[in-house]
From TrEMBL:
Tree of life domain: Bacteria
Protein name in UniProt: Putative glutamine transport system permease protein GlnP
A Pfam entry, by short name: BPD_transp_1
Membrane topology: Multi-pass membrane protein
Organism expressing this protein natively: Shewanella benthica KT99
């Protein structure tokens, strides 16, 4: 009990900040970055998907380059380069830079997930829709995408969970996320078990909670078939 009190309830520095409050602040940063990065990633993913599926090379080439670079380099390197080099002259802050970096990273993977989901829909669906007089755009919106969404939903859920856990590297650019908060408490109190296991438990609860909600959504979509 003394270890738990020292790690989570006792002041951990001259500023009198309590360890538990620091973890809550870190959790807030983690969830903020994850939420907005996922939105940015979804927008970029959709745009990149249609660029890669375009008949024009001047759309496909930059999309392929973007996906190749992002998938070929670690996210922590992308984060550090973006913050210390690309955005160094702009006052975007640590959280803003993290949202952009993780959004760019997630967008590349989401684009591949969406593209695979669209291509998984039987080509006969497209041919049947076009034979009924639907335009290419109407076919995509009314026939292909509704079916593709059901196919890619589990993969999108996995991408969100991966993104949530990847935010643990925000500390490399000086941000205080959930993982960094646990490390700060450990370094100041010399108690490793409670803060680190607390952070691990919070990540576990978040991922299991989201997985549960996703499974309920998948079940509802199956019932609507």
């Amino acid at each position: 009990m003394d270890t738990i009190y020292t790690s989570l309830f006792a002041p951990i520095g001259d500023d009198g900040l309590i360890g538990g409050l620091l973890i809550l602040e870190g959790l807030k940063s983690t969830l903020t970055v994850t939420f907005f990065a996922m939105i940015l990633g979804a927008v970029l993913g959709v745009a990149t998907t249609f660029m890669k599926m375009s008949d024009h090379w001047f759309w496909r080439w930059p999309a392929n380059l973007y996906v190749g670079v992002i998938r070929g380099t670690p996210v922590v390197i992308q984060l550090v380069i973006l913050y210390f080099i690309v955005l160094s002259a702009l006052d975007v802050g640590v959280i803003g830079a993290a949202i952009i970096a993780f959004g760019l990273n997630s967008g590349a993977y989401i684009s591949e997930i969406i593209r695979a989901g669209i291509q998984a829909v039987d080509k006969g669906q497209t041919e049947a829709a076009r034979s009924l007089g639907l335009s290419q755009r109407q076919t995509m919106q009314e026939v292909i995408l509704p079916q593709a969404i059901k196919n890619i939903l589990p993969a999108l859920g996995n991408e969100f969970i991966v993104l949530l856990k990847e935010t643990a590297v925000i500390g490399f650019i000086g941000g205080v996320d959930l993982m960094r908060a646990g490390e700060i408490i450990r370094s100041r109190t010399f108690e490793a078990e409670v803060p680190l296991f607390t952070c691990a438990l919070i990540y576990l609860v978040l991922t299991y909670g989201f997985t549960f909600m996703l499974s309920k959504l998948e079940l509802r979509l199956k019932q609507s078939d």
